[in-house]
Amino acid sequence: MKKICFLIFVLFIIASCSPNQDINGDYLRGVSYTTIKNVKTVTTVGAAGDEIVATYNYTGGQLTSVTSSDNSFSYQLTYTGDDITEILYKSVDDTGQDITNTQVLTYSAGKLTKSEGDVVFAGSGTFTSSTIYSYDGDKIKSIITKVKDKATSSERYTIQTDYGFSGSNVSNFNIV
After folding, report:
1. pTM of this prediction?
2. Strand order in the sheet with 62-68
3. Mean pLDDT of the 84-98 span
4. Looking at the chain, which terminus has fewer C-beta neighbours within 10 angstroms, N or C?
5. Within a 10 A sphere around the Cβ of 75, how many other Cβ atoms?
6. CB 79 within 8 A of CB 87
7. Tens digits of per-residue pLDDT, 107-145?
């Protein structure tokens, strides 16, 4: 009789103990799964302990700019409809020289297919970059970037990255 009572008691305890789960079955109670629409700021701390705050600005729900608290970088985004069609990126290199990178983006059938523009290094010249994005169905197949010296039109370098997939996930990539 004691064994039967013990088994009933154990079954009662097991049945009455529900895991600490929220309504959707996740063990992280209180975590909201709504999409984060607008990140306002991101703070990073460098090796020397210096803190940089990136502030994200939106217009009509679209990210339009990002600026750093120390003025070391900024982004300006231009849209046509929902597509980003131009990115202006400004930064400062390790020697304090300004870098300006302007890229114009082109789409086909809703996919980014090309970005072209100039990268201006204060005191070091201007380079032209062109990037082609190739797809296999809906998945990226390769990205090829060519950079030329704008003054001489001589090619500086080409970088090609080929992607492989396992299902929907990138399973490998090769930089050529």
Report:
1. 0.72
2. 41-45, 51-59, 62-68, 73-80, 83-92, 98-108, 111-121, 125-136, 139-149, 155-166, 169-175
3. 92
4. N
5. 19
6. no
7. 999 999 999 999 999 878 999 999 999 999 999 999 999
In angstroms, the CA 101 to CA 119 distance is: 4
Q: How far apart are CA 89 and CA 99, in angstroms?
A: 8
Position 147, amino acid: V
Burial environment of residue 135 by CB neighbours within 10 A (0 to 12, 13 to 18, 19 or more): middle
48 to 42, 92, 96: CA distances (angstroms): 18, 18, 18
Residues in the chain: 176
Reported as a single tens digit per residue, the pLDDT across 95-110 is 889 999 999 999 999 9
